[in-house]
Amino acid sequence: MTVTVRFAPSPTGHIHIGNSRTALFNWLFAKKNGGSFVLRFDDTDKERSKAEFADATELDLAWLGIQPDRVERQSDRVAAYDAAAEKLKAEGLLYPCYETADELERRRSRARALGRPPVYDRAALKLSADEKAAFEAEGRKVHWRFLLPNHDGDPFAPRRTEVTWTDLCRGEQSVDLASLSDPVLIREDGTYLYTLPSIVDDIDMGITHVIRGEDHVANTGVQYAIFKALGAEMPTFGHHNLLTTRDGEGLSKRKGALSIGSLREAGLEPMAVASLAVLTGTSQAVEPVPNLEVLADKFDLSSVSRSAAKFDPADLDGLNAKLVHDMPYEVVEDRLRSLGIRASETFWLLIRENCEKVSDAQHYWQIVYGSVDSKVEEEDREFVAKARDFLPEGDITEETWGTWTSALKAETGRKGRGLFMPLRRALTGLDHGPDMKALLPLIGRQNILDRLPG
């Protein structure tokens, strides 16, 4: 069996780091098992689905390193869903209903008041042809429900019916179909809800494993019944915990919180995002991983915790900085050039440990080759002016800093912070930064003299 997984976002907004968790789980699982990854857009909601969101999703996935083996759009497959719906109708498993939303809510409220679960009572199954015609005459639109197999022939006498499966993340799971309402599969306007198209696609596309958020656990029982009604085997399921902020706040595409696009524009590295999205909420340490191949080796669905995967967005900055600190020059050379930095390997290796993001290199490029807002305290002004006279002659090398500061120490009696900090502030405008011994040759004699008051 060839492992085939899918990531099926609705193109109704920009995907966020929580969505990327699901996409990465599926991608890494496929790659680890020599399988394939299907990107399938759930775009049957014509009003909310936008082509620009689908395009943005593909761009975001590519930035993370995910290249789908196949891209599908549910809007192209409506005929397949129609055929499945007709099959279920013909078998009496998809039945018409006419209740309004207000009527259904009143029934649920009455059930709760009586201490009963608010499960649909299947009243529509009792409607006569005349009653259906009367509803249609008054302008009511029909919606269609799937009859769950939770009875022994009498749908009005449901019995406990357990659907069990071994979940890749949660172990043994079960859902009692008697505790659920018959799901609506087709809306009043004739459009499909998520459930039926997803199942038809999973069957037709040979999806072997469905890895998704734990908010879908209860849906699995319903989907099992529909798979069976359509004569198909259910895939293997895995329901992972959801990514939330430290305060437990959920993420939303509509709110745009922590969208992949915004993280990319903020200058974060894709592997900082991927490392946090995948490793948070598992038994493994959250640490920066250099590439998806290494992350695939670490990836293990059985290590996913059953509690919420809480994270602090600020953690991304720390992970990002660690990745940048280890980046070789050849990895960033083109990126530096695109930032207008004509840097050498010497420059990058010197400043990278002071950068949280690659774009921070612009700041140090300015310090080395541009103008600097020198900071000289009033009490240090005479000392810095004297330093100008003690700058060693000849080429500025890595030995220059030691020779220079030793001479100044002997002349002024200054030492430690009182010796080094005024010079650093005058030459770089900073209180801390790259090693002055190595930075001085890059700054060069003329810039050094220009930044020291005469």
Question: How would you sum up this structure, described in words?
Answer:
By secondary structure, the protein is of the alpha/beta class. It folds into 5 domains: 4-71 and 193-243, Rossmann fold; 82-179, Glutamyl-tRNA Synthetase, Domain 3 (Glutamyl-tRNA Synthetase, domain 3); 260-324, Orthogonal Bundle (Glutamyl-tRNA Synthetase, domain 2); 327-369, no CATH class; 378-451, Arc Repressor Mutant, subunit A, CATH 1.10.10.350. 44% of the residues lie in helices and 12% in strands. It has 18 helices and 12 strands. The strands form 5 sheets. A 3-stranded parallel sheet has the order 1-2-3. Strands 4-5-8 form a 3-stranded antiparallel sheet. A two-stranded antiparallel ribbon has the order 6-7. The radius of gyration is 32 Å and the shape is elongated. The termini are far apart. The relative contact order is 0.10.
